[in-house]
Structures are given as C-alpha cells and as structure tokens.
C-alpha cells in the first residue's frame, strides 16, 4: 500500500484544481494506493459550507462529497491558512470530515506520503 | 477617471501593482479571486485616499463570504456594466 | 456604447470565459454593442468540438448563443493554429482574425476590457 | 528505473512541456524508462493539428519523437474532450487514458514528477 | 491618435506574454494608434542582453528588435523592479532603447494612455 | 530523503510553502522561474539547516543570470536526472 497526497493551493472557485485533485484521488482506489487531499493557502476557502462555485456556473465542490463518504478519503487543511481567512469550525461543511494540520507539522506530514502531486 | 479591475488574489504581485496605480477619484473593482480583498479589514489603506472600492457580489458570495463581511461596496454584473459606462478608461 | 472584452486564458481551467460571458450578457441588457476578442489559450472557447461533462456548462454553446444576440466573437487566428483549431472547428458566428482586428477593436471600442492572464 | 512526468499547463503559453521533454531526454540517456502523463490543458501538446510558426519549436513532433524512443505518452481522455481533441487528432505513439492510468503510473513508477500548474 | 499601453508582469522566459505584447503592439500601427510596452515585476529580466529564452528552445526576445527600430516603439521598465533584480545600465540591450519610469510616476504614466492591456 | 522541485518565482506563495516543507538532508531544486531564488543572497536562510539547494543551469542562464551570480549549486538536465535517481521521494 502506497500513500499518495494531492495538495491544492489554488482558489476553490473559478479554477478546476480542487475538483481535479479529488477526481485524481478517487481514481487511486483502483490500485493499491491510499490517497489523501490537502488544502493549503487559498484552497482552504473550499471548506466553508457557503463556498459554492456553482453560484457562478462552475462545477460544485459538493459533487465530491458522496465519494469522500464512500471511500472515506481523508481531507486535510492547514490551520494557519484557515485562521488567515477567519474560517470558524462551525462554518466548515461536515461532509469534508476535515482534519486540521498545523504549519509546523506540515513537513513531516507531507513526507509521510510516498508520492505527492500538487495542483 | 479610470476603472481598475483587480482579478487576482491579494497574494499576487500584480494586484498590488494595480492598487498602486489608482489615483483619487478612480474606481477599483475586485472580481474573481480579487474579491478576497473585499474581506480584508485594511483594504482601504491599500489605495490612495479618494479611490472608491467595489467588489463583484456574485464572485464574493460564491467564495463563501457573507455580504456583511465586505469592507467595500458590492455590485452585481449590472453594476459592473454601469461602472464601465461611467468611467472613460479601463485598466486591466 | 461599444464594449470589447479580451480573454487570454483557457476556458474551464480558469473562470475568465465565464466572467466574460456574464459581463457580455449584462452589457447587452443595457443596450450596448459587445465584442469578445479571444487571444492565446482562450481560443479554445470557440472550438465546437469541446465536449464537457453533462453536469458542466457548455462554454462554446454559450458563446454561440451570445453571437446570435449580436455579440461579435473574434478569434486570434495564429493563436488558434498554435492550439490545433481549424476553420472547420470554430463555432458558428465567430471569425478568425488577428492583431489587425485587435487594433481595430481597440480603436473603435468605447471601452476595452482585458482580463489579464 | 521508471520515471513518470505529469504536466498540467498548456504548451507554448508556459514552458512546462519544454521542461518535461528536456528532462525526458536526459532520463532516457541515463537508461531509464520514461512516461509522460498529460493532464488538463497540457493535452494540447499531443494534438497533431497544432501549427506553430516556422521559427518556433514543434512540441507535438518532439513528443512523437520521444515516443519513438520508447517514451509512453498518456493523454487524460476527459481532459482532451474538454479541449476538443478527438482520437483522430492525437499524435502517433500516444494513448488516451484517464485517472485509472494515472493511478497505475503512480503505483508502478519509481519516481513521479509532477510539474504543478 | 489614441495611445495604447501593453504592460507585461510575467517572466520573460518560459511564457509567451512578452512576445505576445510586442506582436500586439506592432499590430496597432495599422490603425491610428500609438502603442508602448511597459515591463513590470519579473518581466524586467527581459532587458538584460544576456536574457535569451532561445537557449531553452523558446522564441527569442530579440525577434522584436527590428520592429522596435522600424516603428520606434517606446519600451519602458520600472526603476524599482530593475533595482530589485540588480540590473545595471550596461547590462541592458541597447536595442530596447529602454526608458525608465519610477514607481511613483507609474499611476500618472499609465493613466496617460487611452487603453491599457496587461499581460 | 526527498527532492523538492520549486518551479515558481519567489513572489509566489507556493514557493514559500515548498521551501518550508524541506527537512534537513532534503534537496531543493529550483527550475523555471524558481531559479530566481538562486540569485537571492539570502536563499540559504529560507530553508532549514542541512537542506541542499540546487538550480537548473539552463533555466538560470536563459533568464540572463551569470553562473557566478548563483548562491546555489548549478546542475544541468543530466544533473537533475541524477538527483531524481538519488532521492526516493519527489515533492512537486
């Protein structure tokens, strides 16, 4: 079993990368791979339940939720980036089942994966 | 005067460049990831006095912000069109 | 008033085509003439062979609808060649042109709105 | 050693395809097996209809040459549909695939090098 | 006669924007338009005569020189950005016929154009 | 240990993110606009002690820098390939 991390640093609205990261991650289950997704920088805006790219005609983030539940794909966000955007716990959509990692844990955390793909 | 359109996020150098260009009586409109500026407490200090700030409501709301979080005037696409009519020059 | 919107980045990957389409619609509603100039990777938006997923919006169709409402859609021809788009692939109502057309649009438009890459 | 290089951005507009091609050549010279996975807008690099100016490099031709030297060129099929690239347009020696193939490459490659967008 | 500014902020190597800015600028002479090109941020790296994208297989910047001379297209760079990259006067390719504009002159300078296109 | 590839310029947040990831004994390779880091006097202070820094010579030279301006070890594509062989993990 190899561990694969898809990290996204780009904004959740108006660019495809968060949806592409999840599409990639869900594809990993066909092999003996264990994917996870990490939101850093502006990508953390995705976690607010009020973040809805579909309001401007883009693909919804929520389309990932049923697969996150089905596969139990772990989703992480960086604490300091959540704080920067003043994102409070009760604003986070529960479907992400979000795990928080702090900035000083990041190096060890990212190194714990066998392969890392950043979008 | 000019309408300056800022479409990139506060972390991008070009956004700072565009904000520096604004002269008093210019209007700055934040769109796309530029709307993140609208939620910054200090956004008014990033431009010269007399510069009017706006953000595109659709893009602000889609990114999960609440209307009341905005430090600047929110306009919809119709409002953007109106700004285009009023300002003779567009810098973007 | 004649307003031209220039787009420079690929559709779908970035939202600039969506922004341009929404703005064009708002300008049309207020009675303006609107032109769209597709430069660099944005030329992909005028490729009728583009096949998005069913749940997604169809940007080339939206552009064609705009052209039916009177919006001029100009495609930088050299940019299109660089992206493998031939005359036979462009959506109805769009035209291949180039920087001379860009110059004419800059000269003749009352407002020229560039969505920077 | 099997090394896979994933590219995500359009050719010409950005230099990532050039970087990938140069790196692939260096890896080949050192005796490695190389695969290239074209994702998102990078799929344009495998479109044989791309016509650059004569003074410019021909990226699809370079990819085809690499494939003749044994490099596997994989194209994300859904990404290609989104960019209007059909089966008949892809360069010889390349194959349409998708995230299952990406997973296989990630699993089987000794090194996976992503050029982030 | 209307004045048009093409400003470039992206790196001169590995992206097409400087060449596209000049291609656009030179196209303006077909109309009653007066173009100029401005380099800001990393784009200023273009002005060093040693900056050669062709070394990595990309289009040369020098292909613009004969048209700059023919049309006498004005080319500007921001002083503070040149300083940031420690670019000295004697390193600048004379073919640019480069004019320097300082950061505090920029607002008035950019406003002096009728149309502005940033790449 | 890991090879971390930094391809974006120092002005981009993702570059800082990647440099922060580097643990002692990791190697960082600057390519594309990332090579601008190689000309920064303080580049070694941007990573933890024990991190080795490299830049791709081709990309550095093409941007007009002189080899002697580099604060880090310059490698060519063959050298990049060698780094890939040596490091088990790639972060990019």
From TrEMBL, chains A, E:
Coiled coil spans: none
UniProt xrefs under InterPro entries: DsrEFH-like, Sulphur_relay_DsrE/F-like, Sulphur_relay_TusC/DsrF
Domain of life (superkingdom): Bacteria
Protein family (similarity comment): Belongs to the DsrF/TusC family.
Protein name: Intracellular sulfur oxidation protein
Taxonomic classification: Bacteria, Bacillati, Bacillota, Clostridia, Thermoanaerobacterales
UniProtKB/TrEMBL annotation, chains B, F:
One CC-aspect GO term: sulfurtransferase complex
Record-given protein name: tRNA 2-thiouridine synthesizing protein B
InterPro entries, per database record: DsrEFH-like, Sulphur_relay_TusB/DsrH
GO BP terms in the entry: tRNA wobble position uridine thiolation
TM stretches of this protein: none
Gene3D superfamilies on file: DsrEFH-like
NCBIfam families: sulf_tusB_dsrH
Automatic annotation (TrEMBL), chains C, D:
Pfam family of the protein (one): DsrE
GO cellular component: cytosol
UniProt name for this protein: tRNA 2-thiouridine synthesizing protein D
Alphabetized InterPro entries for the sequence: DsrEFH-like, Sulphur_relay_DsrE/F-like
């Amino acid at each position: 079993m190899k561990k694969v991390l898809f990290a996204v640093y780009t904004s959740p609205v108006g660019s495809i990368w968060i949806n592409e990261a999840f599409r990639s991650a869900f594809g990993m289950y066909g092999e003996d791979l264990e994917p996870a997704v990490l939101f850093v920088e502006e990508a953390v805006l995705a976690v607010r339940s009020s973040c809805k790219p579909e309001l401007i005609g883009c693909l919804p983030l929520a389309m990932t939720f049923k697969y996150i539940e089905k596969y139990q794909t772990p989703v992480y966000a960086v604490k300091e980036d959540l704080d920067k955007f003043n994102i409070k716990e009760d604003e986070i959509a529960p479907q992400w089942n979000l795990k928080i990692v702090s900035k000083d844990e990041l190096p060890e955390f990212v190194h714990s994966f066998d392969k890392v793909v950043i979008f | 005067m000019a309408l300056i359109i800022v479409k990139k996020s506060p972390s991008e150098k070009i956004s700072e460049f565009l904000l520096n260009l604004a002269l008093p009586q210019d209007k700055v409109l934040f769109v796309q990831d530029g709307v993140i500026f609208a939620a910054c407490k200090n956004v008014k200090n990033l431009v010269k006095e007399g510069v009017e700030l706006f953000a595109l409501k659709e893009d602000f709301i889609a990114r999960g912000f609440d209307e009341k979080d905005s430090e600047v005037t929110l306009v919809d696409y119709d409002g953007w069109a109106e700004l285009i009519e009023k300002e003779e020059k567009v810098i973007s | 008033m004649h307003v031209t919107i220039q787009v420079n980045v690929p559709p779908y990957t970035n939202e600039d085509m969506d922004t341009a389409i929404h703005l064009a619609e708002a300008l049309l509603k207020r009675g303006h003439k609107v032109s769209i100039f597709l430069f660099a990777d944005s030329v992909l938006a005028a490729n009728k062979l583009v096949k998005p997923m069913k749940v997604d919006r169809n940007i080339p169709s939206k552009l064609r609808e705009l052209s039916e409402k009177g919006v001029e859609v100009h495609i930088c021809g050299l940019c299109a060649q660089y992206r493998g788009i031939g005359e036979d692939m462009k959506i109805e109502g769009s035209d291949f042109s180039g920087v001379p057309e860009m110059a004419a649009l800059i000269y003749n438009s009352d407002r020229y709105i560039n969505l920077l890459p």
